Amino acid sequence: MAETVVLDPVDLHLLRLLQNDARSTYRDLAAQVGVAPSTCLDRVTRLRRSGIILGHQLRLDPAKLGRGLEALLSVQVRPHRRELVGPFVDRIRALPESRTVFHLTGPDDYLVHVAVADMADLQRLVLDEFTSRREVARVETRLIFQQWDCGPLLPPQRDASATTPPHAGQGATPSAESG
Fold first, then answer.
1. Helix (H, G, I), strand (E, B) or coil at 89
2. Interior/surface letters 117-135, b for 16+ CB within 10 angstroms, e for the rest
3. What gap in Å lies between CA 70 and CA 113, rounded to an integer?
């Protein structure tokens, strides 16, 4: 299990702000949390080195890229053995339609989030890339009508007074985004 890093209220506030807008400048971040820009830079650098901040992502609108239909594919792999699992995951991750792959417990082995052009493209993907594979025993498809982003990820609060950042009322509000 990964080692937990101790975070103070300023760290938590920085993480919340960066998750809401990763393009914020250190000067803007510092002003919002009430520290000097150099202190802000040092703290963010420490959060990166500790592995809490993993990177930055550019989010794209799948519909505007011609992939307006998204779905979740529940996949059973049989037999569920390491020598089949690795190549299966590598192949699925390499597909341009794949957005995220989850390895699960329970009746399904994988949950794959895909973005495709339309229903015919989804059918092609399921038949040609999933069910045609000999290790795939079953695929169940669920269409995504709409999705919402949730608030920033922060550690569980053990002591509310120790982890409530300044200006706690400011933060992300879920936004309705299609796709």
1. helix
2. beeebbeebbeebbeebeb
3. 7
Token couple for 30: 């510092």
% of the chain surpassing 90 pLDDT = 72
User: How many angstroms separate the CA atoms of 67 and 110, rounded?
Assistant: 22
Give the chain's length: 179
DSSP letter, residue 63: G
Pairwise CA distance, residues 130 & 65, whole Å: 23
Q: What is the pLDDT of residues 69-81, one digit of tens each?
A: 999 999 999 988 8
Distances (CA, A) of 100 to 11, 39, 131: 28, 35, 18
pLDDT at 164 over 80: no
**How many other CB atoms are there within 10 angstroms of residue 113's CB atom?**
16
The Cα–Cα gap between 101 and 112 comes to: 5
User: Hey, is 143 helix, strand or coil?
Assistant: strand
Cβ of 5: how many Cβ atoms within 10 Å? 13
- Tokens of residue 159, six digits: 């002591």
- Rg of the Cα atoms in the chain: 21
Composition of the chain by helix, strand, coil, percent to 5: 35, 20, 45
In angstroms, rounded to a whole number, what is the distance separating the alpha carbons of residues 122 and 116? 6
| Lowest-confidence region among 74-78, 87-91, 161-165 | 161-165
